[in-house]
Design goal:
about 300 residues, mainly beta, Jelly Rolls, six-stranded mixed sheet, 1 helix, about 45% strand
Length: about 300
């Protein structure tokens, strides 16, 4: 399947991301298709080719030119939420080359968050494309707190509108972090999955608590002992570990270490990742009930970098 390709450099998106969102202009109410009650929502007319949005709301786009450029609306919710999208109006004729795509995650320069190894769905299952004038009744859902609407509307006067709602997620796995400073806990909930915490900017990462693999069985007991932090766990052939690293894009990340074990005390070391993307990745075999708590802060200008990526 040939998906829309939106070329956006990570630093460019990170700037808009940090600015954070274009705030809504007015408030109205709507009857969400999956609900019986009327709820308040924000109204937003999309005017920029690249928009970052973090509110529930009703968004509109109408093309003012015949430009065939592919644009994107990057939606981000809180870490413990998923994104639901419902298109209530579509006027994007297929014969003009118009197309709308819903992406389960974010796409930057053909690279996806979460990546293929960390997402429960295949690549094709993460894209839903549409064109024409028929209203789609399907509610499109993300698997994590990030989703993307890509669109190409090459005829003036055509456009679309859709509702965005955020739904509580009791088992968040992959998280796109919006704040520059925060504390998060990644868990696998006893499943054979990979979970990640990703920031689109350089950051310092400190491990506050670790319970991954060795000494952290599925059935915890009172005699469970702390092993301390074990390093280079992947090279030791251990199936469960935490990786810390980064890169200039969402693909081909460089990992500086892999750790595992049980340690309730904060690590003394702080990893300073001077890359466009910073990632903490929890790899789980399903044999253990894993959890890692990390603190993320902006880089200290006087700190020695643990990893530097070419710009």
């Amino acid at each position: 399947m040939n998906h829309l390709l939106l070329i956006v450099a990570v630093p460019v998106l990170a700037t808009a991301f940090a600015a954070h969102v274009q705030y809504p202009r007015q408030t109205s109410s709507f009857l969400y298709p999956a609900q019986s009650k009327r709820i308040r929502t924000q109204e937003k007319i999309i005017t920029d080719c690249m928009t970052v949005w973090s509110e529930e709301g009703h968004l509109y786009y109408k093309s003012s030119t015949n430009d065939p450029t592919v644009c994107g609306i990057y939606i981000i919710a809180k870490p413990e939420q998923t994104v639901h999208v419902y298109f209530d109006y579509v006027d994007v004729p297929c014969n003009t080359g118009g197309l709308i795509a819903f992406v389960d995650g974010w796409e930057l320069n053909g690279q996806l968050f979460p990546n293929e190894q960390d997402h429960p769905k295949s690549i094709n299952e993460r894209f839903f494309e549409m064109c024409g004038t028929k209203k789609h009744k399907q509610i499109l859902k993300s698997s994590q707190n990030a989703a993307l609407i890509q669109y190409r509307v090459p005829r003036r006067g055509n456009g679309f509108s859709f509702y965005v709602s955020f739904i509580d997620n009791p088992t968040p796995c992959n998280i796109l972090m919006a704040d520059i400073s925060d504390v998060h806990t990644l868990r696998n909930y006893g499943k054979p999955v990979n979970c990640s915490l990703t920031m689109l900017y350089p950051a310092q990462v400190k491990i506050l608590a670790l319970g991954v693999g060795l000494g952290h069985e599925q059935k915890r007991t009172l005699t469970e002992r702390e092993t301390g932090t074990i390093h280079k766990c992947d090279k030791r052939g251990l199936p469960d570990f935490v990786q810390v690293g980064g890169g200039d894009g969402l693909a081909q990340l460089s990992m500086i270490d892999s750790i595992c074990g049980t340690n309730s005390e904060p690590e003394n070391a702080v990893e300073t990742i001077m890359c466009g993307v910073t990632t903490v990745r929890l790899v789980s075999s399903g044999q253990f009930h894993n959890a890692v708590t990390v603190a993320v802060t902006p880089p200290d200008v006087e700190a020695t970098p643990s990893l530097v990526c070419e710009q």
